[in-house]
Write a structure and sequence with these properties.
It is built from five helices and 17 strands. By secondary structure, the chain is of the alpha+beta class. The longest helix is centred in the first third of the chain and has 19 residues. Belongs to the CRISPR-associated protein Cas6/Cse3/CasE family. This is CRISPR-associated endoribonuclease.
């Protein structure tokens, strides 16, 4: 399931580029608000979210300066009730803080999900990252040119599938083909996100995926790669190759 969230801000509002942790906080605060008001346990679910989409903006002093009042944001999760809780929480709050920036919540709507084929093309709505433990308790981020980048994405989707369904998919085959022409055109295809003081490297690159429709669907709803709940790995359909 996928949620489109709409905010209103004043023209000229300045937004720092490193806002991922603020968006994570908005999700946490929204679910906490519902849990507090209804005396229910705070819901937990696999989820991911996109970067912010401003209808018009300029860049000044390392910040985005909004040229309009409209901001869109997308949240995705295989759990429909989790998204409903976020909408309830945002409705209760009315306003949210993106760091020091005040945004007014105006509306949200559930989007129809696409039909999934065994071969599809996606573009990124937030960077895809693959992390693994390195020495000294640090994390090391895999290069998209590395031998195991695609395989690690596949293994991660199998793990997510098992968490959701308590079983393994019938078809575990999946191959990734990242757009080499796009990478050649971009001088810096990677993105380095400062997540509340922690640097996370990811990639915003179109790609084709072939194989298990079950795993492709999990990637669409829960995110591809790691750190999805920090705003990594969200994609949208570029076109259905067999549609």
């Amino acid at each position: 399931m996928r949620l489109e969230v709409n905010f209103r801000c004043s023209k000229g509002t300045a937004i720092n580029f490193n806002y991922n942790h603020h968006l994570s906080n908005i999700i946490a605060e929204s679910t906490e608000k519902v849990a507090f008001s209804s005396d229910e346990q705070k819901p937990q679910s696999l989820h991911t979210f996109s970067q912010l989409y401003l209808k018009d903006y300029s860049i000044s002093g390392g910040k985005m300066i909004s040229g309009s009042e409209q901001i869109q944001w997308y949240i995705s999760s295989p759990d429909h009730s989790f998204l409903e809780t976020i909408v309830k929480g945002l409705t209760i709050c009315g306003y949210v803080y993106l760091g020091d920036t005040l945004l007014e919540f105006t509306q949200a709507r559930l989007l129809e999900h696409p039909y999934f084929y065994d071969e599809m093309d996606f573009t990124c709505m937030s960077p895809i990252t693959i992390a693994h433990a390195a020495g000294g308790g640090k994390e090391q981020y895999s290069s998209i040119d590395g031998e195991f980048f695609g395989e690690n994405l596949r293994q991660d989707l199998i793990r997510k599938y098992y968490i959701i369904n308590k079983s393994f998919p019938k078809d575990e085959n999946l191959s990734f083909y990242f757009d080499s022409k796009y990478m050649q055109k971009k001088s810096r295809p990677s993105r380095l996100i400062n997540y509340d003081g922690k640097k996370i490297m990811g990639y915003m690159i179109p790609f084709k995926v072939k194989g298990s429709k079950e795993l492709i669907e999990i990637g669409y709803h829960a995110g591809f790669g790691n750190k999805n709940d920090c705003g990594f790995g969200m994609v949208k359909v570029w076109h259905n190759t067999r549609g």
